[in-house]
Specification:
By secondary structure, this protein is α/β, with parallel strands linked by helices. The protein has seven helices and eight strands; from the N terminus they run αβββαβααββαβαβα. It binds zinc ion. The site of zinc ion has 3 residues, from loops.
Length: about 270
């Protein structure tokens, strides 16, 4: 009897222990689920509107040059139409980088300038050319003749086929990803505001703001250029801002700040 009672109470204890273990297991599962839910919620916070104000802009490596240099875009703003801005597609036009870096500094300090639009800014599209002070990429291709425009012409300088170069591909990727409604390319040394596509009034406003002459045509054919591709073929307002030669980035910023703000706000 005594032995039977002991055996019975041991069995009861065993049952209690198992129930407790099951309960613990359930709690662990509930705990894990809560943690997963919390994780999902926090991930949601960081991607959907609860970010701190400073994270409305971030840098992104969008590709690499032939020699493996990073091509970086600064992306500002979270909503609204996207505007694409880039410099130094020709490596011997370094003022574009300095101008766009100064512009980025101003934009970061004034987030209201992009509260209802997204800006994709690429200060240097041709880092190999910039390192060599060369117009071309390291394979000798003029990247501004390498876009898949309907007037693309295969040649040693234009590339063996459209978008054959990794630098061109990096910009194409931004066009596909952001579907910009407006494009600005910074060049030198022709000192003018040139444009392609439906950009008449925007270009005229930028010319007024900068004091640069407005030139609907650059005066020579540019097959496979970004203007041909984005402006003529895709019908995106595309501005080519040509700085004068030998202009420092600081002076360019002083002269062109208003025109760049027109591009963002027009
Ligand atoms: Zn150029």
């Amino acid at each position: 009897m005594q032995a039977g009672l002991q055996a019975g109470s041991r069995w009861v204890r065993l049952r209690e222990v198992r129930r407790f273990q099951r309960l613990l297991g359930r709690r662990e599962k509930v705990g894990r689920s809560l943690l997963i839910l919390l994780g999902v919620f926090c991930a949601g916070c960081s991607s959907a509107g609860v970010r701190p104000a400073s994270s409305v802009s971030h840098s992104e490596v969008i590709g690499a040059s032939v020699e493996g240099r990073a091509i970086t875009a600064e992306i500002l703003g979270r909503e609204g139409p996207a505007f694409l801005i880039f410099g130094v597609i020709h490596g011997n036009e370094p003022a574009g980088e300095q101008l766009l870096e100064l512009f980025l500094g101003h934009l970061r300090k004034n987030p209201s300038l992009y509260s209802r639009r997204r800006l994709v800014v690429i200060p240097v599209l041709n880092p190999d050319g910039l390192a060599r002070k060369s117009r071309y990429n390291v394979r000798g291709v003029d990247l501004n003749r390498n876009f898949p425009a309907s007037n693309f012409k295969k040649s040693r300088r234009n590339g063996p086929y459209p978008a054959s170069e990794p630098e061109t591909k990096a910009l194409m990727k931004m066009i596909r990803q952001f579907r910009p409604t407006r494009v600005l390319a910074v060049h030198s040394p022709l000192l003018c505001v040139n444009y392609d596509g439906p950009a008449d009034s925007l270009a005229a406003a930028m010319a007024r703001a900068s004091g640069y002459p407005l030139k609907p045509s650059i005066g020579y054919p540019t097959p496979g250029s970004l203007g041909s591709y984005a402006g003529v073929d895709l019908r995106l307002p595309t501005i080519t801002l040509e700085l004068p030669g030998k202009l420092s980035g600081e002076k360019a910023w002083e002269d062109l700040k208003e025109a760049l703000l027109v591009f963002v706000n027009h």
